[in-house]
Amino acid sequence: MLKRLIKWALIGTAVIIGLAIVIGLTGGGSESTSEEPDTSAPGPAIEVTETSLSSENGMIQVAGTVKNISDRRLEWVSSVVTFLDDAGNEIDAQDGLIDQDMDPGQSSTFSIVSLNMDAVDFTVQFVDVDGVPIAHIDGR
Predict the structure, then answer these.
(1) What is the pLDDT of residues 6-20, one digit of tens each?
(2) Rounded alpha-carbon distances, angstroms, from residue 109 to 13, 42, 63, 106
């Protein structure tokens, strides 16, 4: 009797593993596969509308305003500012979240500080929560 129970338990386990493999290989499960993947090239999602570079109290600050020019909500967006010296060399890089999530057409501000007083210029990029770059245009 015990041998028969073990035999059926092994057969049941093999069937479950087989089904799991088939479902995994065919993309089965609860996801709908009727939608076509979006193959359109994404355009810029952010427009930089204003920036400034200032120094005060031993710090260099880059502040700016950005606008969501996409058709989707942008959440957890970080600005990444690279600070440059007078020769154009990278001397520091700092990042931080913009001040608020943005619905389409909405604007937000950002502010990034560096303690490297040799900074005279900067570049700014934007990334999502996973660190993936977000395309942007400079509308200043």
Answers:
(1) 444 445 444 455 434
(2) 56, 23, 7, 11
